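Researcher: We're teaching a course module on how sequence relates to structure. For the next exercise, students receive a sequence and then see the predicted structure as tokens, so they can try to spot secondary structure elements on their own. Here is the exercise chain.
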Amino acid sequence: MGPRPSPGWLRKRRARYPLLLGLLLTPAALTAQETPADLVDPFVGALADFGQLSPAAVTPFGMMQLGPDTSPANHAGYDHAATTLLGFSHTRGVGVGCGGAGGDLMISLRYAGSTGAALIDKASETARAGTYRVRYDHGILAEMAATRGAGVLRFTLPRAGAVDLRIDPRHSYSKRLAASWASLASDDLRADLEAGTVCDQGAYHLHTASRILVNGRPIHQTLTTGAGDLATLHLTGKAGDAIEIRTGLSTVDAAGAASVRDREIASKSLATVATETRAAWNRILGRVVLGGSRDQRALFYTSLYRVMETPVAIDDPDGRHRDKDGTIQTSPKGRTRYANWSLWDNYRTQMPLLALLQPERSVDIANSLVALYAGGKAQWSTPHEPFLTVRTEHAGIALLDMHRKGIAFDAAAALAGMAADSDTLKRGTPDEQIEAAYDDWATAELARDLGRTDLARTFTAKAQSYRPMWRSVFQTPGADGDVVKARGLYQGTLWQYRWAPIFDLPWMTATVGRERLLGELHHFFDAGLFNMTNEPDIQVPWMFAALGQPQQTADLVQTILTKPIAHPYTNSGKLPVPFVGRSFALSPQGFADGMDDDAGGMTAWYVFATLGLYPLVPGEPWYVVTTPAFDRAQIDLGNGRRLTIRRDGPEDGMIARASLNGRALPDFRVDHAALLRGGTLTITTRARDGRIVPQLQDIGVKVPGDGHRRPR
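Model: And here is the predicted structure for the students to work with:
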């Protein structure tokens, strides 16, 4: 989770808002024809600071995120409770903290002479995977659909009259560093943009090329510019007239943006673009086929939808892209360059999930990570990023994980970059020492895999150098053990970071003793020290199973997935009264208070948990097995192989055994390679007398309904 400003300003504006279940282009009622894409609800996590998400139109791993900008807004330019519309912009980050990033090229249309706010007709607002539509300002209809790098925005006029189309190149959720018009012709409107990346740690460069059509025909006009480079076009229309803006994006230049626009959308109708994008989402999401209720499947596919938004493919049709040093490069034929990293947040969950569900794409993702090391890798971002990004720490752990899961890339080049990167890592605070040790461990392990025993020995020693610090600071947390940011920690407490060296769990267990360590794990949850709203300790519920207590893991995970629990922590401190609510919910308030999705980091946790699998140690190719939420889930592994995950028994029952193709998994652990061979993973549960409620659940506090918050 990236740094963010104080949550106070957000708290003042959060409002209670019910879930809107309107679905674009199809009836809301369940039909036998509903596909995974139809079940996606892009409004989940789009309320205030609950997820920091947007209903923008987007395709899998696409640069284009074309959607509404409202006042007030969350970090992605939108708040589900807002009723004032500012316009529609083409880019945004996905739940990444700070003030977000993106908001490029905002377009608005109003009748000439309109005064006051442009009000949203909330009852008309609908969003689907790849599309968004809304009526506003007394009946103007805005509809949009996206491809990988292009988008179609269409306004339909409810009545005749003069309208003003305005295009703002300086709108941004971060610092706008530069904006200029290369062309003001309505047939090929071009802009060159530069803005701060997330947290303004670097800068990205973006080029746009737009074409304006009225009723499907070019209008051959020139826009005028005014203060702030705002471009304006005055039009006179009839009732029912459709004004379209078709825009392409490029990291290279405006000509590249025009080629993206003309290649990806050309003269296709909005409906055709929407249909093709829906099909693209179904190909991605449909690799997992589920049993279960409609709401269960809807939340699963909505979560998987968020996972599959990042990183983004940035190549123009000719393979060109901007590199992190600002130079223009060309991807080899058949390869794709990816960008838009948030690895500190999602290396634990989202990257391993892509390795399992998108192994072919992960090849290009891995090679794109290797390219970051060429010439030295920034830990956040550079002044010449190709696209908005957050941070790239722990890229080496993600690469080791993919290497050990059979994802092919230049491992020797990765190793050289990881070894050189080690000297740039911060090691001042206790958490920095642990995180650097994890990176050094990954370097040692990759060196060992590649037969570089001397290098492996060197980096193993370097990785283990954190151990005396852990014993003195974390083995017995002191009076400041439950203080957020104590001793310089980043967004966490000593108790939460205590479990961070998961790569060294055998040493931790031997040092503390298994029984004592288990007792301390129980205390961690019983005393309310666990924080589900940020990444440093999200692996801890799964540690029980790794230490021989699978039932505790099953109970905790099932509670987190299905029950309101107390959430006492924020990034900056501890709340005097915990927020109590669901960690994941099918509503605009889709997450706990202050919980960002973090570029799929949290939604990937949810997907793994519902499947009954978890990559406890990224970099080691195995999963903890626990009770799945679905009685049956089938995963298409590619090459004709399928894995069926089956629960035999009640979801909240006692976990009795796990087996893969009839062979018992006595330690509730399964290797990635074994899963890839396909077959059936069966988790057997049995009914029990009474329900033992884990201490995570605060059953003494009245829980507000979804979309609401408790007053403080």
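Model: If you want an answer key for the exercise: The two ends are 24 Å apart (CA to CA). Residues 1-31, 699-712 have pLDDT under 50 and may be disordered.
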